[in-house]
Amino acid sequence: MKDKNVLITIKNTQQPYNDEAITFEPEVIEIITKGKLRTEKNAYTLTYEERFSNQKRVTVLNFSEKYKEKTILINKDGNENTMLIINEGKRINCWYNTDYGGLQIGVCGEMIKSKLGKDGGNLEFHYKIDINSIATSSNKVQINFKYC
Q1: pLDDT tens, position by position, 16-39
Q2: What CATH number does the domain containing 102 carry?
Q3: Number of independent structural domains in the chain
């Protein structure tokens, strides 16, 4: 399929906590950027750039729904190559790179909702992250995109 230009709004809310049941204030990050949308049968791909400080990285987010199984695959390249797999109702081990080295994390997908329409669409997903089987955060991502 042909790529379409889209304006993407992303809101990521992360609720960090630690093994001592101490809950911290939620961290909210909002990004507005331009990107590309490619649609396929039961799937779509959003590609966009993120810029933090002087770093630039390309993010590719794939959403698919096959046999009622919803999956999101997020690949980020740049200085920190990262891949997260979020599968509704399942826990998956993923590799996460940082400036200080890589680590294996568990990603437990809780909910994935998607809607694609004639003017654009939205995607919302919730997941939890654990490191060494210790819960570290609960995450909620809301993505809206409009054709431009």
Answers
A1: 876 666 667 899 999 999 999 999
A2: 2.40.128.20
A3: 1
